[in-house]
Amino acid sequence: MFNNLSEKLDKALHVLKGHGSITEVNVAETLKEVRRALLDADVNFKIAKDFTKRVKEKAIGQNVLTTLQPGQLMVKIVKDELTELMGGDAAGINLSGKPTIILMSGLQGSGKTTFSGKLANYLKNKKTKKPLLVACDVYRPAAIDQLHVVGDQINVEVYSDKGNNDPVAIAQAGIAHAKQHGHNVVIIDTAGRLAVDEAMMTEIANIHKAIEPQETLFVVDSMTGQDAVNTAKAFNDILNFDGVILTKLDGDTRGGAAISIKSVVNKPIKFIGTGEKMEAIDVFYPSRMADRILGMGDVVSLVERAQEQFDEEEARKLQKKIAKNQFGFDDFLKQIQQVKKMGNMKDLVGMIPGASKAMKGMEIEDDAFKHIEALIHSMTPEERSKPSMINASRKKRIAKGAGRSVQEMNQLLKQFDQMSKMMKMMQGGGGRKLMQMMKG
Ligand code: GDP
Asked: What are the SRP54-type proteins GTP-binding domain coordinates in residue numbering (predicted)?
């Protein structure tokens, strides 16, 4: 996420961060570089200009040149301004309706249907919410099917009425259905077109007027940069929406949309989409995002993701197994699957402070565990539960079955061994022992 921008900002701020002398000249030079970095990231020209102007004013106001740590102070000013630009505090969603009606808007392909599913899943996991998804795309039967597929995946009911070509009527019937069946949130997925056009705008405006949603969300593909901002403006003029959803932030997004959208439409970004899976949804926190943009990582979100995937029941079972020395490859596989649910590797690495920079140029595969999984799948159930029985000839067979080398198989066994040892130590009240081991 935002790799290019992060790198350029880091370079721009580098001189000031280091111990080199700080003068008015290099502050000005730095800010020029910061502005260039923002423009390269597809941030709107005026926003980039105002941004650097504000940073400069603050720097002068706080007398950056004479402070003890001018470099760090500059970074802090840039961070605070970035946070402010992206909306300041995190904005929640209004769930006060009975039922709460959430209307999705946006262009086709922006990720509306996927996000509708993600949001339903997110709310469902909050336990007190029972969402209903409503399919209002009357032009593409495939879109209705797609929402049903999503609904099946997350176990959320989908209301649709194929053949009915009145989206307002479908939305209303969906809400009535929700009331009858005890759903307290209704998420309405609407049709999008490839570009902003009048027919689409009229249609969504009509739906909006008829159902009076508590939340109207505008979904936009962050890869589209300045276009995203223009589309947002067009939709906001018609709908006066409540919040923005930025999708596809897991890709090679330049960052322009995330940074500019709030100041153009004056509506907060509420959630971000970071992958195609239903779990790839995050609340948008401007300050955490600023940290990530400045290469400072985002440990808080990383920990939260880990907590979301944490299954207490499983953890207890695992603990028992470790205590009894029964930890096997099936458990290892389960662990891998949990980590995978947290997001793709590139994204996770970006959340560790400094890691993106340290791993720059290294190829991080999206599915870094693919080969490990293949090797484990190539083992017999017996081998998985008793890894010590894997001798040289078994190694050869397993590697061959997975299409990998024996060397990789050896590496996996080594990793497995280390992980088992580590877990045993953590169990035996041995946090201290572990620390000692790590210190070497
Ligand atoms: P809609 O036409 O607006 O309903 O868009 P879809 O939900 O069908 O999404 C279009 C494509 O984008 C699909 O292939 C999705 O899997 C993909 N997609 C949606 N959200 C994300 C995301 O956050 N990250 C990535 N990488 N892909 C996404």
From this structure: 268-281
CATH label, 304-439, candidates 3.30.420.40, 1.10.260.30, 3.40.50.1950, 1.10.150.20: 1.10.260.30
Q: Is 108 left (phi over 0), alpha (psi -120 to 50) or beta?
A: beta
Name the residue at shortest CA distance from atom 5 of ligand 1: 111
* Sequence spans of domains, the chain: 3-85, 100-293, 304-439
**Beta-sheet pairing, 281-283 with 243-247:** unpaired
The best mutation among 114, 134, 224, 248 to test binding of ligand 1, ranked by most ligand atoms within 8 Å of the C-beta, falls on: 114
Q: Which numbered atom of ligand 1 lies nearest the CA of 272?
A: 23
Beta strands in 21-173 (DSSP E): 100-105, 131-136, 158-159
Overall average pLDDT of the 367-396 stretch:
90
Amino acid, single-letter form, for residue 207: I
Question: Which ligand 1 atom sits nearest the alpha carbon of residue 274?
Answer: 23
250 CB less than 6 Å from ligand 1? yes
How many Å apart are CA 59 and CA 70, to the nearest integer?
Answer: 9
Is there an atom of ligand 1 within 6 Å of 291 CB? no
Query: What residue type is assigned to position 396 of the chain?
Result: K
CATH homologous superfamily of 100-293 = P-loop containing nucleotide triphosphate hydrolases (3.40.50.300)
Architecture of the domain spanning 3-85: Up-down Bundle (1.20)
Of residues 391 and 436, the one with the higher pLDDT is: 391
Binding residues for GTP: 106-113, 189-193, 247-250
Over residues 328-356, mean pLDDT: 77
Domains 100-293 and 304-439 share a fold: no
Residue 198: other Cβ atoms inside 10 A: 8
ipTM of the complex as predicted: 0.99
Q: How far is the CA of 139 from the centre of ligand 1 (A)?
A: 18
CB environment 295-327: b (16+ within 10 A), e (fewer):
bebbeebbeebeeebeeeeeeeebeebbeeeeb
Burial environment of residue 255 by CB neighbours within 10 A (0 to 12, 13 to 18, 19 or more)? buried
Identify which of 119, 144, 148, 276 to mutate to test ligand 1's pocket (most ligand atoms within 8 A of the CB). Answer: 276
| Structure confidence at residue 440 (pLDDT) | 41
Instruction: Specify the amino acid at residue 45.
Output: F
Is 110's C-beta closer than 6 angstroms to any atom of ligand 1? yes
CA of 362 to the centre of ligand 1 (A): 27
Q: Is 111 in the pocket of ligand 1 (CB under 6 A)?
A: yes
